[in-house]
């Protein structure tokens, strides 16, 4: 059964989170394996978002850090950082409407992060689209 884009973004967040954890433990699990373990069926959307975030990781973090006053993305919890990376990737590299990207990021942050992280994500995305 097809999943909604919201559900797929949530999968992307989980996959990127797991990738971060596995990288820290030097598991070096191939991203394809992490994706396959999280999806019932193949999803081009998930593949493009996850691989896009990984391919542009440093650039995305630079963008995030530029807009985080006296903070860096790696100070966010891994879930919040994954949500922000997905949103920045989508803003910079997809034609998804900005309002959709921000709403999706905020909804994920409400579900998985605390209020301060949600506000930080909202503020960063807001600054990026105003530039």
Features:
single chain; 131 residues; mainly alpha; 7 helices
What does this entry look like structurally?
This protein is mainly α and 131 residues long. Helices cover 75% and strands 0% of the residues. Helix 5 runs parallel beside helix 7 (115-130). It is globular. The termini are far apart. The model has no long low-confidence stretch (mean pLDDT 93).
Number of strands: 0
Please trace the helix and strand order, writing H or E for each element: HHHHHHH
Helix fraction, binned, reads over 70%
Distance between the termini: 39 Å
Contiguous helical run count = 7
Q: By helix and strand content, what is the structural category?
A: mainly alpha
The quaternary structure here is single chain
State which percent range the strand residues make up. Answer: under 5%
List the SSEs and their pairings:
Elements: H1 5-24, H2 31-38, H3 44-55, H4 57-67, H5 78-93, H6 98-112, H7 115-130
Summarize the structure.
The chain has seven helices and no strands. By secondary structure, it is an all-alpha fold.
């Amino acid at each position: 059964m097809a999943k909604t884009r919201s559900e797929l973004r949530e999968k992307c967040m989980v996959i990127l989170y797991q990738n971060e954890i596995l990288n820290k433990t030097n598991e070096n699990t191939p991203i394809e394996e992490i994706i396959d373990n999280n999806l019932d069926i193949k999803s081009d959307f998930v593949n493009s978002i996850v691989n896009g975030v990984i391919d542009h990781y440093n650039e995305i973090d630079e963008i995030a850090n530029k807009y985080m006053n006296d903070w860096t993305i790696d100070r966010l919890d891994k879930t919040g950082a994954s949500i922000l990376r997905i949103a920045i990737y989508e803003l910079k590299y997809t034609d998804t409407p900005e309002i959709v990207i921000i709403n999706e990021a905020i909804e994920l942050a409400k579900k998985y992060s605390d209020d301060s992280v949600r506000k930080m994500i909202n503020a960063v995305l807001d600054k990026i689209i105003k530039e």
